[in-house]
Amino acid sequence: MADKPSDNSSENESQEEQRCGVLQKIRKFNPREVFTWQLAKTLAMGQGLAAFICGTAVSSQYLASNFHVDTPMLQSMLNYMLLCVTYTSMLLCRTGDGNILQILKKRWWKYVLLGLVDVEANYTVVKAYQYTTLTSVQLLDCFIIPVLMLLSWWILKTRYKVAHYVAVGICLLGVGAMVGADLLAGRDQGSTSNILLGDALVLLSAALYAVSNVAQEYTVKNLSRVEFLGMLGLFGTIISTIQMVILERKAVSTINWSWEIGLLFGAFALCMYALYSFMPIVVKLTSATSVNLSLLTADLFSLFCGIFLFHYSFSGLYLVSLVVILIGFITFNAVPTVTKPAEPTTSSSSSSSICEDGCHDNPVTQDDISSKEVSIGIPTDMDLRDDEVRIRKQKRRSLGEENGGEDAAGVRHSTKM
Q: Transmembrane ranges (predicted)?
């Protein structure tokens, strides 16, 4: 019976310590440590990328509604061609390991897969509008966030904290408010011919975008931005051209070209080119997950433009959605993520143990060690043999000198006699 009061007192003490710890954290909280210049720059750059996506959406909407032009592969091909002309040319002018020939020798097949993934991600999301509604596209397109976090955890070894998951939940609530505003405003556009197929295409597009963005983050942080954009432009141009000839040959031939259509095509290509050019910079500063959270506001910017250009009806939930998404984005970037270091392999661990012993400073493989042991062992045997020969010669000399001394003494003694 005497143990129960002691247990209760220990529990109360632990609870008081936890409360004191929470209060101390609240008192030590400094807004200047959260709302830094780096966060403001990241937020501004992310919203700039969202504005570029808004430009592509508005130009595509004008082409489809006013001029009845629906050629997503042709529009994407123009973007990849601009990337190829700019960044692939830079790789051609480089020397050494950064040259395009050296890159193609080492990892050409990886960039072929990356180009295929990126092209199909752009194509499937546009194709989904033919089968499902705008609401479904906006909701299911958020599937990219959990896929990105999973791939970052698996491939990039990024470890998230509780605050990051809370921030993602806040951003998704903002997207829900935006979709609710669309439903209230009667903006549930799109087709309902095959909703299941359309939803599947949206999910596929989100997964492909996640793969492309994780590959982009890895390449930009470990290799270079120019290499990523140059190889993506090269293989993206080839793949999109082939796909455009197969799928959109008739649609392109029926376009009644005018300066307005040419201007809209140019605006779409320039916005996409700017998005692809600046996105790696923001990804290198933050992460692919953070950038995609900031891009959730792109639909809102498109809606705000549509209010003036296409006479969409306005809803106060749009502003609520924008504020909620920005709060989630700030919360996500306020807490830094943790990158788990790569586990050492067997060879690296053996070399590190050698370094700890003080024998070698550089990583050494087992073959190098054995070869060095052999090369050291052979001269040692030869040195032993040489020492033996030298000792024998010295013994012979010493014996000869003693014999010579005895003979000389004998001669002197005989002469005296």
A: 34-58, 137-156, 162-184, 196-216, 228-247, 259-279, 291-310, 317-335
